[in-house]
Amino acid sequence: MSTGAPASIVSSHADGETELAVSEVLPDYADAFPFERFNAMQCAVLPALLDSEENVVVSAPTASGKTALAEVAICEAIEADGTALFLAPLRALTNEKESEWERFEALGYSVYVVTGERDLNPRRAERADILVMTPEKADSATRKHDSPRYSFITDVDCCVIDEVHLLDSEKRGSVLEVTVSRLRRLCDPRVVALSATMPNVDDVAGWLDAPADNTFAFGDDYRPVPLHADVRTYTHGDNAFADKYRRLYRALDIAEPHIRDEGQALVFVSSRQDTVQAAKKARDEIVERDIPIGARGDYDFHNDASELSNDTLRQSVLDGVGFHHAGLSKDDKGLVEQWFKEGKLQLLFSTSTLAWGVNLPARCVVIRDTKLHDPLEGEVDMSPLDVLQMLGRAGRPGYDDKGYAWVVCDSSDADRYRTLLREGKEIESRLAEDLDAHLNAEIALGTIGDIEDVMDWLETTFYYVRARSAPDEYASESALRERVSETLRSLVARGFVEREDMRLEPTPLGRLASKFYLRLDTAREFADLAERAEGETRSIEPSSNAERSSADRSSGRRPREGGGQSDSRGRDGLDQDVILRAIATAAEFDSVTARSDERDAVAAVLGETDGLDPGGRKVLAILESRMRGTTPSELKSDAWVITQNALRLLAALRAFLERLAGAGAANVACRIEARIENGISDGAVGLTAIDGVGSGRASKLAAEGIKTPAEVLDAGVSGLSAAGLAEGVAERVVDSADDLPNVVVEWGDFPDSVAAGENDMREATVRNVGGDARAGLRVTVNDVEMTAKNRYLGEATLPVGVFGGDAEKLEYAVEVTFPDLPLHPVVETRSVRVE
């Protein structure tokens, strides 16, 4: 792969015409742009975008107009009847692009956002002219490109990477890197990469094979407003809570003169809750300092503010102070952004999301918090990329002669941030940190099939290009190749890959690890757990189905699944504690920490729990409290992130269990997953299998004694209405319950007794008279397995041997277990005397 020629360094505006009318350049798409003329920076790049089919890399200051370049590239692609893919750095931004690009919809082009929050509509994705995705969703799509649902990803003609300096992100950089490399191998789209200022733009150009004429590095002269950036320190104390206020007062010291001069200040803090608390405290401090700000006398604005759904925000904006974070409603965020642009808000507190998204500059930008609490990592430093992105928002074009940007930090960190502001941050590859997982994924996908492919793949990565550019910081090429070879040997030794001569094949373990994006240590632990469970078969307690009346059997009425075991135990020796501990100790949670105020709450949930570190205990406490539907307030700030990751891990563990231990073990994990998601008891968890029944309705029905789908059908619409459901809802719930599998077990001509020494073969028939489902079928006698099979339920005949041995009594059980549904197993029993 080429390492690329030096970038076109553009430090000042070119002579001659520096603006062109959009209508002259793209007459058919002028209405897709929110302005009439391209600026100087955009004009310099237009020939590369419009007169060349080669890849393009652009590095330019924040707020200089890079989004318009993305839109030009998109226009060029759809003009040729192609499909454009826009990779947005944050999920929140994908929704913003969907709204902004209604301009393309008005021209007759289809825009479709594909994120993890939505159910994929393959037909819409296939027909879309413009796809919008995060790197993570694009990674998932390219991994599944050979499935009908995701085949659209191989039809991409142009890929626009917004904020390509995300490559340097510790958590997400390697995902972007391997996804773009994989996409280029799948369909070789044109790539247009856009970035804030980065010193080593040539390395990115070399990775993407962008020629020198298509590689641009615009200097600070292309900033719409000159920037002054510096560092202010504060006196660090022993109390973290008090330190927040020390930093807030320092931030207000910086912002105050600009606000008094009718300018605006944007202050970045570490969390959603901090935006709210900082805004509250700032309002009090503004009154104390007698700073002229606010619009309480503006009757029209007072009426406009009443439209806000957030009560705290409604009161705050009247004082000229707002807050902005991803948890606000779309309408509330839109109003805050509008009012800040109009100058009605002079002081705004925000999380880093705003820095990556809406172009919302302010004369003064202050970063109050350089450290933040990550639910999975504990206290971490804000990434240098985020710092530079935030500070780049300083300076409002057309209003400010200069922008002012400040980092507030402890004196021990001051030199580090001054160096960052002076020298910038080179973009590094993060692939080495997850090299084993990504190499395993490529082998599982089949894009790497032999040893030679491994080295070819390596050369497609930014890691390889960066290592050649900076061998002292990475490794020599020979050392790099040896590291990849060693990683491959490790994958073989740990059971993820099989090697035969030069050929490489993924194992089931490798495929599962790739499918669920697991750390390989976690995948190995899950496999070991499943294999232990497979070797420790244990029969489930018989359910009340043994006593079901002959009338019920003949009518085909749904059996009452499971017998309501409260310990969530399956036939394979797994119980709730084993599974929850496996999740809590997964490598994905290794860096979770428990703050001092959280540890008492953890102890209240768990009591004394041996063998877990404080972080593991915290994860376990959150999961157990979620199942009970009552998470302690001290744990709520991290509960959502930990729970979402735990649900992903549970889905993965369920797949491991089904493949290696059987449907019964997978069903236990499925029920735990549903309980965590819905906060429902084990006895009533089967209700959540009914479409349209979530935590609220399940709890309401369970409180009225209706705890299973069978009992829903028995109650009928009138019974559900009496339990508090609206009649229309009750009708839908009954219909959905009737769509679940309805298992009928028929023993046929089964004897009540057998003579000692006699052997007889009989049959049991399992019929499903309800909705389709996958199930595990199992026959046991005196807890010893005789027959087991997995299949889609229809009708199955199971052989049952009746042998008159030494036992005085033979207890037969037919068990039907659902690996994908949170229904308790259906168990039917028969007793045979040995005479």
Keywords:
6-stranded parallel beta sheet; globular; disordered N terminus; single chain; alpha/beta; 835 residues; 17% strand
Set down the secondary structure blueprint.
Blueprint: E1 8-10, E2 20-21, H1 22-25, E3 37-38, H2 40-50, E4 56-59, H3 66-79, E5 84-87, H4 91-100, H5 102-106, E6 111-114, H6 122-127, E7 130-133, H7 135-143, E8 158-161, H8 173-187, E9 190-195, H9 201-208, E10 215-218, E11 227-234, H10 240-260, E12 265-268, H11 272-289, H12 299-305, H13 311-317, E13 321-324, H14 330-342, E14 347-350, H15 353-356, E15 364-367, E16 371-374, E17 378-381, H16 384-391, E18 403-410, H17 414-423, H18 435-445, H19 451-458, H20 462-469, H21 477-493, E19 497-500, E20 503-506, H22 508-515, H23 520-534, H24 550-555, H25 576-584, H26 596-606, H27 614-628, H28 636-660, H29 663-678, H30 695-703, H31 709-722, H32 727-738, E21 743-746, E22 753-754, E23 759-768, E24 774-781, E25 784-792, E26 795-803, E27 809-817, E28 826-834
Helix pairs in contact: 2-3, 7-8, 9-20, 18-21, 18-22, 22-23, 23-28, 25-27, 26-27, 27-28, 27-29, 28-29, 31-32
